[in-house]
From TrEMBL:
Residues 1-63 form the CBS domain. This is CBS domain-containing protein. It comes from Dethiosulfovibrio salsuginis. The lineage of its organism: Bacteria, Thermotogati, Synergistota, Synergistia, Synergistales. Keywords: CBS domain. Pfam families: CBS (PF00571), NTP_transferase (PF00483).
């Protein structure tokens, strides 16, 4: 168990008397203790408020902490993004979450005060929002895909809010199809406390062509993403990972799987059947539509011409540049298809943190 010393001091067993818990709370100025079993599995939490209320109703200070503990404390697990934790703490009106592993063993405490003010990121963010979204049919006849609402807000606004929560303040948005609806909604970004410049595509430039319109070139790695990705990824961590790797490009990947609806037959070189797999599940890594690029990579993009991001990634490889991956484990939905758009809408409706 790799709990730090401060957290170890706050962990108590369920038989500890309330007066003992008060002593620990006072000694550590913590306002709470964590009740755990012999394996450090979280059983509950007791706050100084819980103890005060117990005293007011006449409970003895010799009573065990188990008699007043909250048996359903709010927890977080490895992989939950910073933005998601902030939204949950605001919704639940709590000041901390208990970090646990898959077996509910205590790993640490995540405090709102440690998350609320992110380090400011000067890296520019480029959001590709110029496409029409033909796969969504009539939904995009009068509305560009990034402006379709998820709950009460457009997809693009939810993307930007997550990025702002990660400390990003400088944005480029590429626009083409029904661009005025995007520009009128966000303006220069002042309403959101950010700066927005627009990359005007005179013709559709695919998923990377608008990068050639950035002038002057940035001095720091830039984050590039599609304007239809619904995610709670910690983008600050993504930038940090890219910079530590020394890579020219970082490509976000998502593990996907599907079940083949038929039996799959494997053949030997001579054509004889070597094995049969009944409806196997195939797992693969898919492009998640989010990237970090070092500034010099932008010089590889042809000026003002349609150019795909996957072509740019292939170009990096052929030039011998370093291209690394970053796996997206949390919430991620590409809302480009009707079924995925509906799934994203249901996620927002089911999770009041995201409305």
């Amino acid at each position: 168990m790799n709990k730090d010393i401060a957290i170890r001091a706050l962990c108590v067993d369920s038989f500890l008397a309330l007066k003992g818990a008060l002593s620990i709370i006072d000694a550590n100025a913590s306002q709470f203790v964590l009740v755990v079993d012999k394996d450090d599995t979280l059983l509950g939490v007791v706050t100084d408020g819980d103890i005060r209320r117990a005293i007011l109703r006449g409970d003895s200070l010799d009573s065990p902490v188990s008699s007043v503990m909250n048996r359903s404390p709010k927890v977080t697990v490895e992989g939950e993004s910073r933005g998601s934790m902030i939204r949950r703490m605001k919704e639940l009106d709590v000041h901390f979450l208990i970090k646990v592993d898959e077996n509910r063993r205590v790993l640490g405490i995540v405090r709102f005060s440690d998350l609320a003010v992110p380090a400011t990121r000067t890296n520019p963010v480029v959001i590709m929002a110029g496409g029409r979204g033909r796969r969504l049919g009539a939904l995009t006849d009068n509305c560009p895909k990034p402006m379709l609402p998820l709950g009460k807000k457009p997809i693009l606004e939810m993307i930007i809010e997550n990025l702002v929560e990660c400390g990003f303040l400088n944005f480029y948005i590429s626009v083409n199809y029904l661009k005025d609806s995007i520009i009128d909604h966000f303006g220069d970004g002042d309403r959101l406390g950010i700066k927005i410049a627009y990359l005007h595509e005179e013709k559709p430039l695919n998923t990377a062509g608008s990068l050639s319109l950035i002038d002057p070139l940035p001095k720091e790695p830039l984050l590039v993403m599609n304007g239809d990705i619904f995610t709670d990824l910690d983008f600050g961590e993504l930038i940090d990972t890219h910079e530590r790797s020394g890579a020219d490009g970082t490509m976000c990947l998502r593990e996907m799987s599907y079940q083949v609806p038929f039996g799959v037959v494997d053949l030997s070189d001579d054509g004889s059947v070597s094995s049969i797999r009944e409806k196997p599940v195939i797992t693969y890594m898919a492009n998640a539509g989010m990237y970090v690029l070092s500034p010099e990579v932008l010089s590889f993009v042809p000026k003002g011409e349609p150019y795909a991001m996957t072509t740019l990634m292939d170009d990096l490889i052929s030039r011998g540049k370093k291209l690394v991956s970053h796996t997206v484990d949390g919430l991620w939905i590409d809302v480009g298809r009707m079924e995925d758009f509906e799934r994203a809408r249901r996620s927002v409706c089911d999770d009041s943190r995201l409305r």
